[in-house]
Amino acid sequence: TTNHLRHVDSLTISPSGAGNISHLNAVILGEALASEEDDLIFPSDEFSRQALVPSSAKYLEMYKRSVEDPAGFWSDIALRFHWKAKWGEPVYSENLDARKGTVKIEWFKGGITNICYNCLDRNVEAGNGSNVALYWEGNDPGSDCSLTYSQLLEKVCQLANYLKDIGVRRGDAVVIYLPMIMELPITMLACARIGAVHSVVFAGFSADSLAQRIMDCKPKVILTCNAVKRGSKVICLKDIADAAMVESAKNGVPVDVCVTYGNQSVLNRESTNWKEGRDIWWQDVVPKYPTTCHVEWVDAEDPLFLLYTSGSTGKPKGVLHTTGGYMVYTATTFKYAFDYKSTDIYWCTADCGWITGHSYVTYGPLLNGATVVIFEGAPNYPDSGRCWSIVDKYKVSIFYTAPTLVRSLMRDGNEFVTRYSRKSLRILGSVGEPINPSAWRWFFNVVGESKCPISDTWWQTETGGFMITPLPGAWPQKPGSATFPFFGVQPVIVDEKGVEIEGECSGYLCIKHSWPGAFRTLYGDHERYETTYFKPFAGYYFTGDGCSRDKDGYYWLTGRVDDVINVSGHRIGTAEVESALVSHPHCVEAAVVGFEHEVKGQGIYAFVTLVEGVPPSEELRKNLILTVRNQIGAFAAPDKIHWAPGLPKTRSGKIMRRILRKIASGQLDELGDTSTLADPSVVDQLIALSDC
Ligand code: PRX
Question: Any idea where the AMP-binding enzyme C-terminal domain is (predicted)?
């Protein structure tokens, strides 16, 4: 086809100087891609012609510069933002090798800026104040509102003034426990404006999880709301926040101020539990403040936010991002991976409680002056057509979501999709977990009617922004592959010894060199930062993911290789679930593994050993699940509890999870060598109790 030839032409460009982009050689050197054309999905000529990166040749040219001259490449982009003072030299400095000293990453150090100013004031000053910044779609169809850039700026300034007035200063932590209402991005931006460090806690987290985060970052203030509706359920967030504050106070971290947004239509004031002296109604104070507020100019390397994420131990990690590099990186990745144009209407279904909501609901899009849809509700309420009704209502052109939602909508049938026009859609996006080729094809063919490229963006809380992602229009796509690295990103695949493997291969995914959006530390625990991410494979950032590279140089992410499971795109540490389970008085030991789940991607499978003499029962099973819901959140509830008289352990007492994973996935003939177990008969007992 002409499409194919066009791409092949652009792939035969000279690979001069490609030594450090060798992972692309397979593509550059080939006369044609080695794959059958059937495996490849080409963007239309019409699409490519209008794209920001219209060909693979253009991508290669830009990529090459980005890795050969990172300082020049990123400085040119950074200059498009507003800086009160320019950064010094060098543009960046890095040490990713713990053997050579403290691991350190800095970008644009000495540059003085403010990300809120760049998101709002800069766009208003450019004459775009009357453009819509945020469309808010409420849980119930028909409830909605919007804010222009000027209006959003005013709201942010009022809150910023209030926060300053109650003593929040540059560098102070602020905990945000809010659902997807306008006040959530408003609060993030208000913190950024005054140099306070926000720590958003996803509103699905339990009181215990919230308390743990409060105790770790010791906020000056917490902002929440009294109650919210999600689907047909009412959730009393304030009660959860109250319980968390009681818990944190007991542990020596009292919260002095709790600003509560009153969601009157869900729960009135009189019915909201209240602690005089600590609690304040948002609506009583914030609207009284002036609508302009002085900007706190900060260093590029001053902290912007903390976001807690799961690791392989029970204690969540406070991932810390700084200002300048994060700003430049999220804005640039947003622009290119979604081929963003000023005429686009953008909707990302993620909650601001996760990194996707930080980088690609709030900062990345607003930095580009985009119009963003935010949605409070559940994507299948009142029915499975809700997403497409929203797409039609706002004329969404870029729709970014998670594979778990794609799979669940796919299961509900095409009728819910085809009922709506979806004519405005131009680009689709996927994030959070590998997207299986069948879900990819359904998304592409049914939702996008075979005309919208899919940006399958691979990245992490730690990376700040996209790392491996298609650039729509530049490359033929392969369903299920995140394709190629973003500008400035140098992925490498290493074996167990940390040796880089070239060409077609599988192994552990690491990143060589820093990029502007990289996290700088784990809050209060730089040692854990080094140990977890930089020591496993010396000299590299270790992602925790497995990955393979095919004969054409495309990257395929294969999932976590550590004790983290990915449930509906939410990261959960197996150790966190285990520690919740063993807190139940009837549970002596628990081991948690992931198993393949049709909709969630991975489900949670818990092996539980009960206290001697306690019989397993349905009630106990429910109780154990409830314990996890209460301690972590509903999204971490085990899908399966497997009663285990004993767990398979080595003679040194280490649980052999490999065996448990096989039992969980029903691959009983692939258990492998069990002879090294302290008591091999445990395995037979477990198998006998399968499906109980
Ligand atoms: O395993 C990868 C998976 O999600 C992990 C990061 O989770 P989190 O920090 O919560 O951030 C999620 C949103 C960026 C990764 O280690 N993951 C994320 N995106 C993809 C993915 N796996 C495959 N393909 C993706 N596009």
Answer: 576-654
Cα torsion angle, 526, 527, 528, 533, sign: positive
Of the chain, the end-to-end C-alpha distance in Å amounts to 55
Q: How far apart are CA 222 and CA 220, in angstroms?
A: 7
Residue 461 CA to ligand 1 center (angstroms) comes to 8
Q: Which residues contact 109 (CB under 8 A, 6 or more apart)?
A: 87, 88, 92, 93, 299, 300, 301
One-letter amino acid at 462 equals E
Query: Which H or E run contains 286?
Result: none
Of 140, 412, 562, 639, the active-site residue reads 562
Q: Strand 132-137 to strand 173-177: parallel, antiparallel, or no bridges (unpaired)?
A: unpaired
Pairing of strands 257-261, 279-281: parallel
Interval 394-416: pLDDT, tens: 999 999 999 999 999 999 999 99
Residues 415-435 have pLDDT tens digits of 999 999 999 999 999 999 999
Q: Is 550 a catalytic residue?
A: no
Q: Per-residue pLDDT averaged across 581-596, rounded?
A: 96
Residues with CB under 6 A from ligand 1: 309, 355-356, 430-434, 456-461, 482, 543-545, 557, 559-560, 566, 571
Q: What is the ipTM of this complex?
A: 1.00
Q: What's the pTM?
A: 0.94
